[in-house]
Design goal:
- The chain is built from 6 helices and 7 strands, in the order βααββααβαβαββ.
- The protein is α+β, with helices and mostly antiparallel strands and 218 residues long.
- The chain has one domain: Gcn5-related N-acetyltransferase (GNAT) (Aminopeptidase).
- Helix 2 packs antiparallel against helix 3.
- The longest helix has 21 residues, at 77-97.
- The termini are far apart.
- Coenzyme A binds at residues 25, 28-29, 136-139, 144-150, 172, 176, 178-179, 181-182, 185.
Length: 218
């Protein structure tokens, strides 16, 4: 891998690469297929809002003409909340129409989501007045550990700074040890952690959803 990468704003021609990376990395760097059988719907849920509705806050790392990673940012999480929910509902409905309803993986995921809610988990949100912006970041395997993640976060932080956004939050899984160390190295601090149940083989396992925050004045 050539280390020189350009960090640049997303272009419409990057859409397929970003969608493919999202599906290949959704499970803390591993493919989404273990959890959900429909890649089109998974990509819509993970990156659809950002590619189609807020492309100005989407940054990509390009190496030798190939997109090797992305940061999907959002400067105002309150504004995007309804849009992301609608995108998710439409995507899941479309997946059901394509046959996901008849797949065991779909039902296992649904059961895990219900168990998460019963345990008081779900999608925890920080105080959005203090941490209004958020992002997701994913790199192809061969592009990790050589500084692209840092450069993507720094680029989004400069954008948020220029827009005078008070703070940024990011959500990861509790069992994503590398991701957690990365966010800590980038100056984010743990805000809270909630239970998360995930399908695991024929059973389920418990982990957590960890929310990290960074404030402009810190
Ligand atoms: C997490 C991820 C975005 C980090 O990007 P990266 O390019 O690999 O990280 P960088 O090389 O820019 O490292 C930046 C800092 O984070 C720390 N870091 C990164 N990966 C680390 C790891 N595996 N273990 C410990 N520290 C790590 C380093 O200390 C580094 O600090 P330094 O710059 O002072 O040396 C990337 O590895 C990735 O896409 N992983 C899979 C998907 C994922 O987990 N996404 C995020 C959570 S949803």
């Amino acid at each position: 891998m050539e280390y020189a990468a350009e960090i640049r704003c997303y272009r419409a021609t990057d859409r397929q690469a970003v969608r493919e990376i999202s599906c290949n990395t959704a499970d803390i760097g591993e493919p989404v297929d273990r959890f959900f059988p429909d890649r089109e719907a998974a990509a819509d849920v993970i990156v659809g809002y950002y590619t189609d509705r807020e492309p100005g806050s989407l940054w990509v790392a390009e190496c030798d003409g190939r997109v090797v990673g992305y940061l999907t940012g959002c400067l105002d999480s309150k504004r995007c909340r309804n849009a992301t929910r609608k995108t998710a509902v439409k995507a899941v409905a479309a997946a059901m129409g394509r046959g996901a309803l008849w797949r065991l993986r779909t039902w296992r995921l649904l059961a895990a989501m219900i168990a998460t809610v019963l345990l008081g988990g779900g999608s925890p949100e920080p105080d959005l007045d203090r941490f209004p912006a958020h992002f997701h970041i994913n790199l192809r395997r061969e592009a990790r550990g050589i500084g692209f993640g840092r450069r993507l976060v720094e680029r989004f932080r400069s954008q948020a700074d220029a827009a005078r956004v008070a703070g940024i939050h990011v959500v990861t899984r509790g069992d994503n040890a590398a991701g957690r160390r990365f966010f800590e190295a980038m100056g984010f601090r743990l805000l809270h952690e909630r239970p998360l149940i995930l399908p695991a083989g024929r059973w389920f396992r418990r982990t957590s959803t960890a929310v990290y925050g960074w404030r402009r004045e810190q």
